[in-house]
Design goal:
This protein is of the alpha+beta class and 182 residues long. Helix content is 70%, strand content 13%. Strand 2 and strand 3 form a beta hairpin. Helix 1 packs antiparallel against helix 2 and helix 2 packs antiparallel against helix 3. The longest helix has 61 residues.
Amino acid sequence: LWSMQIGAVSVIQRTVTATLQNLTDGIVAAVPRLVSAIVFLAVAYVAITLLLKGLGAVLRRVYPVEQELVVNLVVIVVGLFLWFGVALALLKIVGLDEIAASVGTAAGFIALGISYALSEMIEDTVAGVYLLRDPDFNPGDEVDTAGITGVVTSIELRKTRFRLENGDTTVLANRNVESKWT
């Protein structure tokens, strides 16, 4: 009985020793990857911050102040794509290549579903950008569109507001305005 207890203690000691050794080896092997990941994140943060500030500055020179929404939209979309790429690269750096590939594929399918679900909103936004860029369509202009006639009071990314002759305000989706106004 005594020899069985000593044998069991010996097995437990070997198991604990092997587990601790494997843990130590894993930590030692992971340190270079973690350091690389931290350095990569720091460089990516600085690069993306500078790039987005530069992009915003360039777009603010191209677009007038009234179109700040367009500038902000472009900067946000570009930032999202850049940070998503950084996240995928970070997963690869720390040795999770398969997860990075899976996340990239899943994100593509999710983006496809979201774009389909939000297709009208995206259509409004694109039409809003066209309306904001159109030199012939400005606040204060009298416009006939979608069965109404009114003065344009504001143009936003997704909708345009009109003041009717009776003083009421009507709001129309940009997709309905952009293709039919005169």
